[in-house]
Structures
1.
Amino acid sequence: METGKHTDIELLERYAMETLPEEVLAELEEHLLICSSCQERLAEAEDFVRVFRKVAPGLRVERPSPIEKLRFLWARIFVLPRPVWAGAFAVLALLVVAATQWSIRPAGRERVMVALSAARGVPVDAPETVAPSGRLLTLTIDLTQLPPFPEHRLEVADATGKAVWHSAVRAEDGKIVSPIPHGLDRGVYFVRLSGVSGVNGAELLREYALRVE
Amino acid sequence: MESTEASATDTGAHPADGSPEESVSWTELVAEIQSGDASAMEEFYRRLSKGIRFYLCRQLGPQDLDDRLHDTFLIAVQAIRRGELREPERVMGFVRTVVRRQVAAYIDTVVHSRKEQADLESGASVTDSRGDPESVAIARQQEEIMTKVLRSISGRDREILTRFYLREQTQQQICDEMNLTETQFRLLKSRAKARFGELGRRQLVRKNRPLSDLT
C-alpha cells in the first residue's frame, strides 16, 4: 500500500473489526497517521460495525400477525366513502349466492413439491424459489452437476441464519427428494446442501434461497 | 458517515484527494529536526498530530488526549534528535512504533495501579461506562436507524452482512458459498452503509463528534 494512495474500504472495515492480517497492519496504521480522509472513513466504518453488531443479533424480522392486519383494516374501513360501502355489500351478496351454489373444498394437506435450483452469477436480487406457508413441503434437488458423495445433508435456516430443520438425506437416481416434517412460517429461508464423506466431514455444495409466503 | 456518492462507487480504492496532504520529503524534514530546526519540528507536529491523536483516542479514549499526544511527540522528536532513526524514509514506521509503545505503557500503568489500589475502606470507584445522556441518545438513534435499514433489505442481503460483520467470514468465502461476484458483494455492503449514513444525516444531529474531529 503506497502512502500516496487511499486505503481500500474493505481493509478499513477489517481493521475496524480487528481481523486485519499482521502483514498489512503496519502499512495501514502508518498511512492512517497522515491521511485524514482515511481516518474519517475508518471512523464511519467503525460506527457501522459497532451498531450492526449491537442490533443484528437480536433483530427479528416479523411480519404483521393476522390479528394486527385485521385491526389495521378495521381502522381503515370507517374512512371509506358510502359508494365504496355499497359496492362492498354488493360483492358480499354475490359471494354468498355463489357459495350456496358451489361447494368449497377444504384446503388439502397434500404435500407441495418444491424444486430447488441455483445458478452461479445470478444477481443478488434474483427471485427465490417460492413455496406456500402452512403446507407440508417436499424439497427436490437435482444433483446432476454436483460432485458425488455417499451421503448428503440438508439444512433449512431462517433469515437470521438459525437452523430450523436438518436431516441426513440419500440421493436416488441423481436426485434428492426430502420431505420436511412440518410447515414453514412465512419468510425467507436458506436451504443448504452439504456432501458428507467419512474423510472430510461435511462440505457445503449449494445454498438455495426459498421464500415461503 | 459515508456519502451516498462515495458509497455507490466505493468498490475499490478510494480516489486520492491529494492526501497525505502535500507531498513532503520526510528525509529532509528528519534532517532538519536533527539539526535542531524549530520550524521543522512545528511542521512535523502539524503533519502528524491529527493522526497520532486519532490513534491514541481509538486505543485509550479521549481522556488526557492532549497530554498523551504531546508526550508521544516529544519522545519521537527526542529520539530523532539522538539519531535513533537510522532510516529517515521510514519515519512513519518509527512514529507508529513510538505511539504503540506509548499505548502499551499506559495500559501497563493502569493495570499496575489497579492491582496496587487496595483501599478496602473506601471501596472501589467504578466509572460509569455508559457515557453522557447525549451520547446515549445518539447511540439509541443509531440503533433505530440500523434496525430500519436491516428490516428494509432482503433476508439474503441480511445473511451476507451477518456473515461478514458478525461471523467475520472473508469476502472470498461469502462469495463462494452464496454465489456472489466480488462486485455484487461490495455493492451490497456499500448500499447498506450508504442507507445507514443517509438516514443518519437526516435524523441525527451528531454532537458527539467522531474521532476524526477530535483535532
2.
Amino acid sequence: MIANSTFALIQMSVLIAVLGNREEVAQYDRAALVGYAWLAQAFFAPTQVWGMPEMADRIRSGDIAVDLVRPLDVQLSALATDMGRSGYELLFRCVPLVVLGALFFGVAPASAATLALGFVALALATAVSFAFRFLIESGTFYVLHERGSLTLSMLTVSLFSGLVVPVPLFPDWLEQLVELTPFPSMLQTPIDVFLGSTGGKSPLWVIGQQVVWLLVLLASGRVAFELGYRRAVVQGG
Amino acid sequence: MRLYLVLVRVRLRAQASYRTSLVLDVGASLGIALLDVLAIFVVFSNTSSLNEWSLSEVALLYGVSASAFSVAEVAVGQLSQLPRLIRTGSFDLLLIRPVGSLFQLVTLDFEIEHLGRLVAGASMLAYGCARAPVDWTVGDALTLALAVAAGAVIFAAVWVIVSAIVFWTVDGHETTTAVTYGGHVFTQFPLSIYPAALRIVFTVIAPLAFVAHVPVAAVTGNDAPVGPWATPLVALLAGAVALAVWRFCERCYRSAGG
C-alpha cells in the first residue's frame, strides 16, 4: 500500500506537470491524469503485469511433469488460480487504493456504467496478462537462459501496458505500433474504461479487443506449451 | 576496510564465473533503468518544459540520481535479505561473529549487475552535459561529481535506516521499496512538481532532495531550497544517523529463538 501510494503520488505529480497550463493532453484532462496515476497502481496488483515466473521455474526444474500427470488442463487450471489470486489482490490492494484515491484526490468512475464495465475490463486484463505470461513461460521449454526472455518480456509489458506512462502520451508512431499489441489490454484498457477516457473509441470496442487478444494468446499458449512439452526431456524419470 | 575489499573480490570472482548470467543480469538492470529514461523522453514529447526544467536539465537530474542510486544499490542492496534472515533465525548467526552485523549484511553478496543502471545514468549525464544551456565551469563539474558521490551515501544511509525498521516489523519489504526505489524515481524530477507533503517527506525525513535537485539546480540556475554545499553535509549527517539507528535497532532486536 505504502509503495503503491508513493509511486501513485509521484506519477500523478509528473503527469500533472506534463499537463501544465493546458486543458488536456492526449485524451486526458487533469482529473483523468490524477485518476490514471492511482488506477495504474491499483490495477497493477490484480493484473500482475510483471508476474511471478512460477511456471517457468517448474518447467526448468522438471516439476511440470507433475502438473501434466494431473487430470486438469495445465493452462486453464493455472488461469483459474491466477484469477483467484487476482480476486484477492482486488479486495485487499486494489479497492483500498481506489478508495484512497477517491477520498484524497477525487478519483472516480465516469458513471455507474463505466464502473461496471471497468470491472469486466479488469478481469479480462488479468486474463490477457496471464495468457501472455503463459505463452512466454512456455518458451522455457525451448530456451537455455529463460531469464533473458522473461526479463525482456517484463520490460516490454511494463512500458507498453501503460504502467510507466499512459500509452496515448507516446509519440504517435509508437502509439500506433503499441495499439497493435496485446499490452495495452493488460492495464491501459481497464483504466481507460473505468475513467471513461477511452478517447474516441467506445468502451465496448476496447473490451472487444481484450477478448480477441485473450483468445489469440490462450490458443498460442496452448500450442507453444504442447509443442514444447513434446520436445522436452524430463530428467529423473 | 581490508576485510571489505577481500570480500568484494571474493563475491565478484564468484559472479564472474557465471559469465552469461552476469551479462544477462547487467542487461536486465540496464533495461529496467531504460524504462525510466524512456518515461522521461515520452514526458518531454508531450511538453517542452516541466515547471521550467528542460529535457536536458531533467536528464542531468536522472544522470546524477541513477548513478548515485546504482552505486548505493551495489553497496547496500543486500539489506533486502534482512527480513528473510530474521524470519529464518539466521540473523543470530551474524550476531555471534566478531564483525558488525551491518557489515556482514552488506557484504553477503556484491551484485555488480546493478551497475547496468550506472550505464544509463552516465549516458544521461553525458546527454545533459552536452545539451543543457549551461556555461560549464570546473566548479560545475565538481558539483556534479560530488553530487553522485554524496548521493550514493545518502541513498545508502536511507536504505540502512528504512531496513532497520525491519527489526520490528520483520517484513518491511514494501516500505523499503517505497523509500528506496520510490525515492530514486522521486529524484528524477524537479521538486516543484510534487505536493508539499511529498516534498517534506523527501527533504526532511529521507533527504533525497539533496541528491539530485539541489546540486543540479545550482549548475543549471534553477530554483532550489538551498545551495549545493548542503549536499555533502547532508551525506555525512545521514551516514552518521544511519549507523546510529542501525546500532540502536540491533540492540532492541529479540530473535525468535530467544
3.
Amino acid sequence: MNDENPGIAFQSLYKTYFKRIFAFVYSLVGNGQEAEEMTQETFLKLFLHLENHGTLEKPKSWIYRVAANISINHLKRRQMYLKILSSQAQKETSGPDLEADLIKREEIERIRRAVEKLPPRDRVILMLYQDSLSYEEISRTMKIKKSSVGKILCRARIKLADKIEEGAKHEMLKKR
Amino acid sequence: MRCLKKDDLTAYLDEELSGNEIRRVAGHLEVCRRCREKLEYIRNAANIVAGKLELLRPETIPDKVFIYPPGETARPAPARRIKRVFRTSIRLPVPAFSLLIILFIFMSVILVRQHRQLSRLQAPAAATPQQAALFLVGSSYFQKVTPEIDLSGFEPIRQPRIFVTGGGKQ
C-alpha cells in the first residue's frame, strides 16, 4: 500500500480489518474490554507506521502480525487463566433460556481452558488459521517457515481436540 | 516407501500444497492404509477444533473501537456567537432588567433608611420648627455655634445627614 495520504490509507485499512482483528483478538483473550484495547493498540501502531514510513507492503500480514504480537505479550504477561474464568463467571445471562445459556457458557469455558494449555504462539497460529489466513500469510505474519505452519497446526489441533474431548468426558462423569 | 508426515497431511487437508505435492500425497494415500487412517485422525481433530473455536468468537462486535480513528480529527466545536445571543428577543432585556432591579433595590434601601431615620425623631412637643430641624444636626456642633439653644429635650440621632442652615454660624 503506497498512499500519499497516510490518513486515507489508514482509514481504508481500518474499515477493512477492524472487525476481523477484534474478533481475532477476542478469540484469544476472551474479554471484550481487553480486546478493544488491544485492537486499538494495533491500529494506533498502524497509524504511526503509516505516518512515519508512508508505505506498507502486505498490510494484512503486517496488521495481523502486530495484533498477534500484542496478543502473545498479553497472554504471557497476565494471568489469563484466572482472568478468563472470572470474566466468564461474571457474565450475566439475560436470555429467556437460562439453562441453555449456562450450558453454552460452560462449554466455552471448557474450550478456553483447553486452549490455554497450548503455548501462546500455537494459540495465535491456530486463531490466525481460524480467521482464514493462508499458510503463506501466517508464515509472513509470524515470521516462520511455511512448512512450520503445517507442523504447528497439526500439533495444536491434535492436542486441543484431545483436551476438549477429555474435558467433555470429565463433565459427563461429573454429571452422572 | 516412507509414510507421510503429519504436517504434510495437514497441509494436504488444508489445500496448501502445490500441484506436484498434491499428486505425491494422493498417490501415497491410495496405497498406504496407515497414512489414510492418520489423515482421518487429523481431519477429525481439525473438524472438532474448527467447530469449537467458532464458539470463542465474540457474539457482537462494536462498530468502532474509538469514535475518531487517528486518521481523522475531531470536528471542532462550533464557535459561540455572542452576538446571536443578544439578537434573540427573549434574551435581550435580561441584562437591562438586572440593572434596573439592582438600581431599584438600591434606591429602596436608601429611601427606607431615610424614612426610618426620620421616623426616629422624637422632638419635644413644644419644639419650634426651627428647633425640630436642628435636631437633625449633631447637637455638639450647634451647642458650640448656638449655645443659647437648649437642646437637652431633644434626643440626638445618630449620624444625621440633613443639615439645616437656618440657624447656622453667626
